[in-house]
## 1
Amino acid sequence: MAYLFANWKMYLNSAQADALMEDLGQVDLGSVEMAVFPNTLDVRKALGALRGNHIAVGAQNAAWVPQGAYTGATSAQVFADGGCTHVLVGHSERRHIFGENNDDVRKKMEAALDAGLTPVLCIGETKEDMEADKTMYRLKKQLTKALEGLVIPKGKLFVAYEPVWAISGSGNGTPCAPEKAEEVHHAIREEMKGLVNWDVPLLYGGSTNDENVVSYLSLECVDGVLVGRASTTADSLRNLIERMKSVS
Ligand code: 13P
């Protein structure tokens, strides 16, 4: 079994999202466990189109307050009431384009858990961090700030390692060498032992596609992938699923 979490970001217009959901509703997933994170407007449609294929639907971002005078925001509680089960928290693009810091991420983690959603906590170092040999310093800080002292029920958390420099579009789009991904995931797993008392599934994200997905999935510490661009067309998504089925 392997996880395929598809973050559609803001790539798709309504017609493209409809077509992709329709296609995905028919795909044989085998032992691939899938969640899709559409834009907020398409969440309800996704819930209807993907339910039959047991594909979970999540929010790309959620506000930390349940309701109130917060123009433009949608809360974790609203997503949960609407039927979502997952939420991305601390995605690199939220941190680096929209300026969210570790305190914001912590509040969003708490709100997500309070609302009964499963957070997918995204962490990752910048190119500057990596070049200054500060990868683990950055990741430990992100993990500790987000998780320390929280009691998280078993199965209600994923951690996604997405090096900022490996993300296509917003980052540098340089795929992470699998050996490096394994080294970092191993260190994350060790760090997680002091924070959560059950084995949290770890995902890798950053320029993943059907050609390289097997090299990440075959790593000991990687339980699945969080995919952006390559999950946004029917052909590449189907190819990705087929490659994942062949190894999971
Ligand atoms: P890409 O797969 O487009 O590099 O995006 C990764 C990501 O940010 C998923 O959340």
## 2
Amino acid sequence: MTIEELIVYGKKYTNSAHAKMLLASFLSVNPLELLTMLDKEVPTNTINIYKKSLEALKANRPIQYVIGHVNFYGSKFIVNENVLIPRFETEELVEYIKSYLITKKIKKPKILDLGCGSGVIGLSLKKFFEEAEVTLTDISNEALEVAKTNAKNLNLKVKFILSDWFSNIKEEKYDIIVSNPPYIETNEEIEEIVKNNEPHLALYGGIDGLDCYKKILKDINKYLKDSYLVAFEIDYLKGEKLKNIIENTIPNSKVINKKDLSNKDRMIFVEKNND
Ligand code: GLN
């Protein structure tokens, strides 16, 4: 069958954008290139994978798991059911940290990524700041395996620790502590495709969605240098509440709520500078 025939075939299972994304991914071209080669014959094994993947999409599996990777901040990251699918908003968290390190001219930052999942945050930072000393942690061994594979594929040397927040972290001081912890409320209604596929361990943050922040904040002070940046991704409705909690737990710091590109309160930064 040709590419064009396979796209038409795919539309019986999914929308044409997803059909093209699948084919493009399995043929290692980008979806726009695909349109310049519509009459090309596709090898049988690729057709078989494509057809199986269409079934998976029809069964409501997220396309990122079906393809097996995502693009995040310019790099390709493997993902599977053991890790949260990285979201675009999280790229903005990375971007802010990057600007902070550049502005402050911190050449060899020590960075801790708590609850790293696939490793997108810590590894993206390491890619940009080669000299940074980056540690990635997660409570899930399976997630850490995914993050390790990603580090290997991207040729990045970082440290991995299996840890329930700070439980296994030696008392060291960091310039940056970053986390996108689970923050969905236990009883919150969320999209079926998310609820049925992504790891609940990575999604749910207790009755008020703030359990993980509270656990992190309880211990965070002893892991921070004199000057530091703490960066959290947050539920857009929790900005003010978290700001209050942080002001009470990390004294004398500047707490900044920041909106994402969709104009939603999506990040909180806690800064302290002794210069
Ligand atoms: N840090 C990872 C991400 O941002 C995983 C976050 C999580 O599992 N809650 O995608």
